[in-house]
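cron nightly-structures :: item 1 of 1
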Amino acid sequence: MATTNAFARTYIQLDSITKATVSLHAEGISNDELASVAGRLAQVVKIKGDTVTLQVFAGTEGIPTNAEVKFFGEAPSLEVSEELSGRFFDAYGNPIDGGPRVQGEKRFIGGPSVNPYKRQQPSQLIPTGIAGIDLNNTLVTGQKIPFFADPDQPYNQVMAQVALRADVDKIILGGMGLSNDDYLYFKQAFEAAGALNKIISFVNTTEQPPVERLLIPDMVLTAAEYFAVDKHEKVLVLLTDMTLYADALCIVSNRMDQIPSKDSMPGSLYSDLAKIYEKAVQLPDGGSITIVAVTTLNDGDITHAIPDNTGYITEGQLFLRMDTDTGKVIIDPFRSLSRLKQLVQGKKTREDHSAVMNTSVRLYADAANAKTKLENGFDLSDYDKRCLEYAKEYSVKLLAIDVNLTIDEMLDTAWGLFRKYFSKTETGIKESLTAKYWKD
């Protein structure tokens, strides 16, 4: 049974109810259309003939079969304008900071990626002040790259540091499953730094329905495309935590009785993640969207479906771990990788960048070998002992996430460590560079 008016189509008979969805017979309904079911916000997730299935964001408990279903006639949207800057919103784009609603142009979320014809090869550097990124795994505009981290590591603090240090025009944070403490941490960190004017945040907390997390990336990227495509600005998108996003996908999939794939994830996981990450782009007019996302790991397992699929889509990864020798959280130089760093190293940075990076990591690897020898009871050479001392100082001064330096300062710091522990010959750096940068 249906009634219609100029704005909505209303039904009052459900055919089936699951833990997360309701189904009914309806006509003229479109994919992703928003609706209300017994006053609860819902979205169309499946249409088969005239049978429409809606995902109810707050769950279906207590909804009767004669509940009123009102279709809104359009998919989720966001009002975009400069008024977004400095604001905090929920998964539906409603303000949660006490400020007024944004007035702007309505944009439907979840649209297609930028036409490949309009894309350019990334060529601009994004400095973050964190040497584990800038020195070893340099970020490039238009890149997509995740942080892999265990749940007990301070990845949200790292994301906040990246937001406050990155040399970009706009930073758009998508928080999925944030604790209230993490939400307040981001809010206070941005306010204290006086950086709110260039930061926009969309937040879903642990107290809100998990399925609402599915809207956050699309809201974030709709805002990002407005500033990158329309305003020609350099935009950095920060998403945390993509594992909780995937868990929300899993909840919906299971409640719709879909057959799970690897690690109980939905079979659509790859395409669901790809439609987000592929929004990263460098545009010819200078606008860009760069995506840095957190993927939390289960006991460090990178073979799980979520990090495994992520690794196929993205252009490297940044791996956080605790360095037991120094007690510092570092960006692991062995397990981290930026596949686009060569596009800017030595081109947008100093000529010695690649040589210093390679030498730093090689000597750190020699220290790891020396540590293995020590643990197995072998005698250490003088070179081994120097490598171990170098590794500790390298971790503290360059790999630790709490270091904040310019890239030139990072390079000079590395040269200082080379001089302190090794000879020019042991570094293996070509003479033309040592003559210029090896300052006795």
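cron nightly-structures :: done
Residues 2-71 form a domain with the Elongation Factor Tu (Ef-tu); domain 3 fold (CATH 2.40.30.20).
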